[in-house]
Amino acid sequence: MTNEHHGAGLTHRAGADEANPPSLVYVIEDDPAVARLVLATLAEFGFNGEGFSTGASVLRRLQVEKPDLCIVDLGLPDMDGIDLMRRIQAASNAGVLILTGRGHPADRVMGLELGGDDYVTKPFEARELVARVRSILRRRSLAPGQAAGQRRYATFLGWRIDCAANVLRAPDGDEHLLGTAETQVLRCFVERPHQILTREQLMGARDLLPTDRSIDVRISRLRRKIERDPHEPAIIKTVYGAGYMFAANVSWE
């Protein structure tokens, strides 16, 4: 493991393994002590990490190399963390873990609604942070449609989703750029229409906590896009005590 200084900040690289390369995690955090702690912990558990103290520096780096996950502090000196999160998702397919001192529930909900995969408040326990990183990466690797060669375009009720570009086109032609997490949930639905899917199945996780409402936020966002009345959903239906069901016929191309 090495610890090098470069223009963007700190770099922690795990040992190389060409058969199973470590996941690359960008840590965007302007507090040097917190950044060092996060990067050292990630490296200890086998991740490659790069640290950035500003939003601008990570956006420049994204033009060169795409990470698997970004850990984003909302309180950055040069831009709002929520805006940075949107720009990261537009420039890459990376997952986003929000790490912040903002503990108000409204901030958490907003972060998740805007596409964050998880939300951790400071102070935090380093090993819990690693567990959440692993959970995000596992969900994303298990999400339908990630493997090469799988079907890309699905249509239902006049809607069309491009599962590779995260674009949902409405019957009237309007296009919506979905967050990666939203795309994964919608892909899971269109892969298995007319089936009851549990929250764990939709998140691709077996260890989902009962208090984890991330999937509910994603369902709410999808309903606002595709339902005529999100409060009386006819497509993404709640099956009380069991999960959700996608009540539409789906065709693939």
From TrEMBL:
Leader peptide range in chain numbering: none
Keyword Cell inner membrane included in the entry's annotation: no
UniProt entry keywords in alphabetical sequence: DNA-binding, Phosphoprotein, Transcription, Transcription regulation, Two-component regulatory system
Domain of life from the UniProt record: Bacteria
SMART domains, sorted: REC, Trans_reg_C
Residues with the 4-aspartylphosphate modification: D73
Pfam hit, one: Trans_reg_C
Ranges in a coiled coil: none
DNA-binding region extent: 151-248
Keyword Phosphoprotein: yes
Residue span, Response regulatory domain: 24-137
Residue span(s) of domain OmpR/PhoB-type: 151-248
Protein name: Response regulator transcription factor
Annotated source species: Variovorax ginsengisoli
